[in-house]
Amino acid sequence: MQTSPATMASRRTLAHVRAAWIVALAVAASMPGCGRPAPAEAPPAGAGESETARGGTLHVTAALQQKWGIATAVPERRSDTVAVTLPGVLRLDERRTAQVTSLVEGQVVSLGADLGSAVRQGQVLATIRAPALADAKTAFFQAAARADLTRREAERARVLLEREAIDQKEAARRRADYEQARTDAGVAESRLHSYGLDQPQIDALLQRARQTEEGSRHDDLADPLLRLVAPLAGRIIARDVLQGQHVTPALALFTVSDLTTLWAVLDAREPDVLFVSRGGAVRIRSSVYADRTWEGRIMHVGDVVDEKSRTVKVRVAVANAGLLLKPNMFVQGEVVGASGTREVLTVPADAVQTVNGESVLFVRIAADRFALRAVQAGGRTGDRRTIVNGLEGTEQVVVTGAFSLKAELLKSSLAGE
């Protein structure tokens, strides 16, 4: 059975408990009347029956086992109807996340947002001084002016040709000049698009240029300042730029994401694939908010089973009300209305004890020795408890008398402090 991160952490915690237990019992064994007597003395009544710790295990004589009513059994395998629950992690909604870069080399003049800031769509995030942008604007104005001039000449040539005031060759030349100028203007406009200017911005620049008096310069229009704006509303979740910094198109300056929707990327085991489909409802839970759930819808079910984990990725869109959920949080997704019949390991409910907040079992490893085993316990099935992780299913588990073993363990631990 696959061991979860939580179970691994539990085992590390229990390792410390065992270490303290060994020390405590060793001290207790060295005290008069405790542990096994010295070989030269006759053992007093009851001596030799108390437990000692060896190698992290609990030694309990047959007499004490009979006194405490210790009994063991192999965990039972039962078919149980359980909800389909998928583990996973929260990710950014890639449809609502964007990186902001400068499409032209330049220097940062000012910044309009900081890490964690809420921004609206179109808000200026940074202003870049880019000489190449000024050159591109100037080239565009010149190309547009030439296109306007050649257009007028071509129209006049058409009129003159109708009046037979010019020949066909001259009219054709003027039409060719106009087509070439229009092409050049289109290339210059495309260059501005490549620097991040949209069509309304370019149209506004051209409108202002045409309103400028003839013979005046366009220096005020061809400014080198490029304003980078937020492509969507959201929060700044990454910022990698400083005022005065030299930037290039290869550098991502900001990452903006709308966190009101997140993706829960869940792992469905092969038997669970039958219960997940596009559009299905899923309840998302997080251990951080144990009493809350978030509603989600399945967007995509993976087409490939992972060779190592034997799971399929399931992507769920989750409405993140209040922005309480955070990307990279571990979550569980319960498929609404889905349940399956599975074979589970069960032990009597009294067999499961709690030590330092962790669920544990006592497992017989020899006739007079028991080991503490960290497990992940599930829900109840009648008077029995399911074991999700921590058992193979072949162990001899203490099913009665476990509380006595726990009490003796805790008493020995306290005696060693």
What does this molecule look like?
The chain is α+β, with helices and mostly antiparallel strands and 417 residues long. It folds into 4 domains: 5-70 and 352-415, no CATH class; 82-93 and 259-340, Efflux pump adaptor protein, beta barrel domain (Elongation Factor Tu (Ef-tu), domain 3, Beta Barrel); 101-130 and 225-254, Beta Barrel (OB fold (Dihydrolipoamide Acetyltransferase, E2P)), CATH 2.40.50.100; 131-223. 29% of the residues lie in helices and 37% in strands. It has 6 helices and 23 strands. The protein has helices spanning 5-30, 62-68, 131-162, 168-194, 199-211, 402-415; strands spanning 53-54, 57-59, 71-73, 76-92, 97-101, 106-111, 118-119, 124-129, 225-229, 234-239, 246-247, 252-257, 261-269, 281-286, 289-301, 311-319, 330-348, 353-355, 358-366, 369-374, 376-381, 384-389, 396-400. A hairpin with a 2-residue loop joins strand 1 and strand 2. Helix 3 (131-162) runs antiparallel to helix 4. It is elongated and about 125 Å long. The two termini are 37 Å apart.
Number of strands: 23
Biggest beta sheet summary: 7 strands, antiparallel
Q: Give helix % range.
A: 25-40%
3D shape:
elongated
Number of helical stretches of at least 4 residues:
6
Total domain count: 4
Low-confidence parts: 1-55
**What is the arithmetic mean of pLDDT?**
82
What is the terminal separation in angstroms? 37 Å
Q: Give the ordered list of helices and strands.
A: HEEHEEEEEEHHHEEEEEEEEEEEEEEEH
Helix/strand/pairing class, anyone?
alpha+beta
